[in-house]
Design brief:
Layout: H1 21-31, H2 95-105, H3 109-121
Helix pairs in contact: 2-3
Length: about 120
């Protein structure tokens, strides 16, 4: 403990487990085993289809476990940012459009108030 003489947070006795504490922890972990790691789960390949090569549009789904709303900013499944869909910035350099774009990426009440005040002032 002398190595941490200046560190009062590391000199606490809370850092060392009580007698038999490690065995209690091991027994608790045996009672409720941990689930499989995400790395051991099968990964879905994201491949772009060749136009017209995948058959008719009415064929059965190739991703039965993926919600229809995956990639949308509503409903079940990952939102657009989590799905890797990056929105394009506005084409014009209009400040109001840029603020609206930023607010769509990072919703913020202060930005909404600023957009409202700019919209209502006629600027």
């Amino acid at each position: 403990m002398a190595a941490y003489a200046q560190r009062t947070d590391l000199n606490s006795s809370a850092m060392t487990p009580e007698y038999g504490g490690i065995k209690k922890l091991a027994d608790a972990q045996k009672a409720v085993p941990m689930g499989a790691s995400p790395a051991s789960a099968p990964q879905q390949q994201m491949q772009r289809p060749v136009p017209g090569a995948n058959g008719p549009l009415t064929r059965p789904t190739e991703r039965p476990l993926e919600p229809v709303t995956a990639g949308a900013n509503f409903g079940a499944g990952p939102n657009a940012m989590a799905a890797g869909i990056i929105p394009t910035p506005p084409a014009q350099n209009d400040v109001l459009e840029q603020l609206a774009y930023l607010n769509s990426l990072y919703p913020n009440r202060d930005l909404e108030n600023l957009i409202d005040s700019m919209t209502n002032s006629g600027s």
